[in-house]
Prior knowledge:
By secondary structure, the protein is of the alpha/beta class. It has helices at about 25-40, 55-60, 65-75, 75-100, 120-140, 160-165, 180-185, 210-220, 240-255, and strands at about 105, 145-150, 170, 190-195, 230.
Amino acid sequence: MRYVYVALPARPHDVPDDEWTPQPTAEAVAAVADAIRELHKRGLAVCGGYACGVFEQAKHWLGDAETLLAPYEDPVGLAALLDRIVEWKASIYGAYAEAGCDIVWMGDDLGTQRSLVMSPADYRRWYRPRHRQIVEHIRSRQPGVRIAFHCCGHVTPLVGDLIEIGIDILEAVQAETMDIAGLKREFGRDICFWGGVGAQSVLARTTPEQVADGVRETLRTMAPGGGYIAAPCHTLTEEVPWEAVVAYHEAVRQYGAYPIA
């Protein structure tokens, strides 16, 4: 979709009714709560499913370039749209908390392979306050819940911001785009890292032996002191061979227990 910026409507006029901020029903929340209780009986921690974030939703409706230009071309209209999206996303994430999830998984894709998608100043003006609002809503539903924030790519300049608004876990931690040792050093006492094993490097272009070495090295970097969830840094694509997937799981079983060797 493409829009001319005269003024953004209260709702993008081409978005179907059934796609515009559908709310979780009481029946759906109850069904999820039942499933969570069964998983808890098995001694498992439960993470909610990921729903795309505020910036991602705006891009879906308006387009990438239009969303990035909107702060300069129609700030009033953009603010109204983002606030409406926040209400919707907060209700979804809050429902996971109400249902009893141990981890609520929110986020926004704010990074590329080399840099942020927008300036830190634009993030702090347009999205950080809205992310904070969502975090506060989630905790109002379940104070003890842990909150994970998904963000692909290079997000190092915003890790401090995420900590300050109350994020507990950063996912996906792409080793190809960030210095994971530096992240651990600077932020490891304040946030948990989820990911870190390079899907593009360690898993996609190496032998099973190299996969095992890469996993072990990542664990040695990220695991000391706790605060690390071992995982590939993103969804695995077709370029990752099955042998690498098997080698990854075997390496985590072999090396992923304390004390880290």
